[in-house]
Write a structure and sequence with these properties.
Largest sheet: none
Order of helices and strands: HHHHHHHHHHHHHHHHHH
CATH topology: Growth Hormone, Chain: A
Radius of gyration: 23 Å
Distance between the termini: 61 Å
CATH architecture: Up-down Bundle
Shape: globular
CATH class: Mainly Alpha
Number of helices: 18
Structural class: mainly alpha
Helix content: over 70%
Mean pLDDT: 85
Amino acid sequence: MSALRHERIDLPVLPLDTSALSSHARHLRTWRNAMFALFAAGGFALAAWVSRTPAVRDSLDASTAAMGWLIFAMAGGAVIGLLSAGPAITRLGAGPVIRTGLITAAAGLSVIAVGTMLGTAPIAFAGLVLFGLGFGSGEVAMNVAGAANERALGRTVMPTFHAMYSLGTLAGAALGVLAAHLGLPVGLHLILAALIVPIVAIPTVRLLPIGIGRVGQGQPKLTTAERLAVWADPRTLLIGLMVLGMGFAEGAAEDWLPLATVDGYGVSETIGAALFGIFVVTMTVGRLTGAALIDRFGRVATLRTSASVAAVGLLVTIFGPSAVTAAVGIALWGLGTSLGLPVGMSAAADDPRTAASRVSAAATVGYAAFLIGPPALAFLGEHIGLLHAFVAVLAMVVVAGIVAPAARPLTVSSTRVRS
């Protein structure tokens, strides 16, 4: 019996297309950098309004309760934007919704400016509805596009996107401090901000891939029942509750912190705006470092630790003996609140097919804090002072820490079930 011969077979070596890989990586970086700029533009627009709330109050001669209803107008517009964003993204893609949202928000700032110049609260109210509408729809679309980029990159990046939002907020707050210090009329300041936002947004959106979040031809479209089913999904609703708690903590600072410190600690408007700046700085630091913490310790542990830090910061801010100790508390408050919204939006978008609907649902539940919070805090503030009204915020942060396990990443099998 002859021995078996083992012949060597030489297969052709296919060349690795490094140029294609390089082009793909470059495309993802361009997409990521565009998202950095868009998140920053959104934060800048919001801070233009927030940093000048004391000046707006004085221009309109509004009480604390009246300011609560003005902020309620912005939150109401935002909820409409949030609810309409999911279907719009599914039909048009995230890019057009981001562009339209930021332009609408800029138009709202212009209308608010007119209201303050004329001293007419109804005009300012209408401007805040318009601002909230654009801000809410743009926020959902940016989070859908950011989550898609995060999946494509294969690593946690959503907190960094929200850090850029915080940097934009910091830039807007810095401009607000400067404007207040120089005595620049609030109307002129808001018009300037309204011009800057579309200058950044319009060309930047063109750098995004076409059709992010859009259901294309040949893909099974979500039925009405599937879109509505996300509202009955316990995980999505619990993520929304977590976002509500942490978003309430973030929104309370954005809406009321300058006024609360001016009234509660007797500091000047400039110092009040600067204390809000501290909140934004520490929030930015938390988001810049958050991606590494999440990759190392996981979403749940990071969120629970963050909620604990925020709770301590709120306690110090509310009950501290001076503005100096309040500044320390505000720093912890900002640091602890920093990861709630980005991690919540990333978790809601775990399933790519239903990402737009789930992000819209979770964000809408979360933004209930912005709808209910302003008048609730205003009501409490009228009776016990704005600083002590923040006790309600503290309670919601505790709830957010309790429901944090809902943000645990989906497995493949659970994704199939929920789809």
